[in-house]
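cron nightly-structures :: item 1 of 1
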Amino acid sequence: MNICHVLASLEVGGMERMVCTLVSAQVGSGDQSSVFCTDTEGEFFETVPAVSKTIARRRSIKLVVDWRVVKQLIAFVRKENIDILHAHNSLGQLYSVIASIYLRIPVVVTYHGQASMGNNRLHLLRRVLCRFSKCVIAISKDVEMLLLGEKVVRPAKLHTVHNGVDIKSFVSDSDTGSPVRRALGISDETFVIGTVGRLAREKNYKMLIRAFAEASEACQAKSKEQRGKSKEKDSADSASLREIDLKLLLVGDGPERERLAQFAFDEGLADRVIFAGQQSDMKSYYEAMDVFCLTSNTEGTSIALIEASCHGLPAIVTDVGGNSEVVKDGVSGIVVGVNDAEAMSSAMIKIINDISLGIKMGQAGVKHCSAKYSASGMASEYKGIYQEALSM
């Protein structure tokens, strides 16, 4: 089967990482998978293992459609003998649907999140485009219910396929300590709270830093209290008491980096909050963490969250999008309310104070995500949808 994925670009992001993983799984299973970017290449463009790939470089024009991009997509599909167009989000869907009218091949579309929902013009556009799409895929039950609730698509057309990752690439196999910790000057005894993602407003990292500040203050207060009590005890007892050193590790880059760094400084946390920037070897960074946090205000199904869970990290997440599907509250992590810094802080403290609980939750996360969020399983589900679309 010849598949062409159509999306804006392969810039760093969850959707883009999912497309790269899906392409890799499809090519590995014997299918021909290509990529057509309407706008720019992006950081992942050179490494995506597509059999063919190209960029159209859409122009910023007043008209909704850049017809030059449509012509390029049509030419690419004919050249590569594509059987089906797999669009990602509304922009990819727009160009795929227009091209399909000329090409007479089916279009399926995956909606990766909900950040733009509520926009009336976009809502109307999606309803029209979905009429010309054979199948519509949501990446979580939350997105599925939103599409149905806003009547974007008929139930008969709608499927839910969870994002998947290459499980083997993220399962922890290290017992020698973390090279990332050594590179960043973090001791093995330090408890590291980590996160991965684009430093953008919707990720609400300001709340994460605020929650971390509260947890740090509570741990310091507890240590001072213990040291005070230890004066009344034997020296053997006092030797077992130590102050917990905490660090917050943010992996990723984006427009909010400077503002977040300033906020950390203002909170007196400049020496405890580490901005690691964009990284490619994610497994090494998960290896440096003790717990993974996701504080998003809006989310689809977080690739980073799945990766962290596959690595065996307990997770603390906000109750948005597919987070509560990936993390089973009280089993593989803790789910808190959106923008609830106090609850996030309490969850951090709970895991910091009970290492065995964190280990138990991490093990449950590995079991759950390995069964439900594999790249091969995702590719298999998509292939079934492609076959359904081709048979219509």
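cron nightly-structures :: done
The chain has 15 helices and 13 strands.
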